[in-house]
Amino acid sequence: NCSNNYGPYQHIEKFIPRMITNRLRGVRPRLYGDGLNVRDWIHVRDHNTAVWDILTKGRIGETYLIGADGELDNITVLREILKAFGRAEDDFDWVRDRPGHDRRYAIDATKLRTELGWEPSHTDFAAGLAETIAWYRDNEAWWRPAKEATEARYAKQGQ
What we know:
There is one protein chain. The protein has 6 helices and 5 strands. The chain is globular. The model has no long low-confidence stretch (mean pLDDT 93).
């Protein structure tokens, strides 16, 4: 089980890539509810190294939780994105919360760390976010084809 990933190649329907690609398109980001929904963010490379350690060092039949102690609420993440773009922290629109939007995802990765010796290496969220933004900026041909269809689907759902 893992926490929320962020980084290169994440589909633009997910929170961080959606906010980044909206800013890259000149569209004001939209934040659901009060923005206080908490997620434990983990860089995709850390997630991958954890999976590798589980595959190569883990005990068969055991469950390991993958997390990087990166709990942040959505409004903080969005404000970090806006800051990285040189925008004001309130340069977004509030929208009605999604039905059933979970308030918090929490991961305790103690077992992964103590049994397998795994540690995250991407612990500076702002630096990881800057790298992620640069990747989406440099790889528009990868995400652009899916963006319009994804946004149209969200609009149809009232999101």
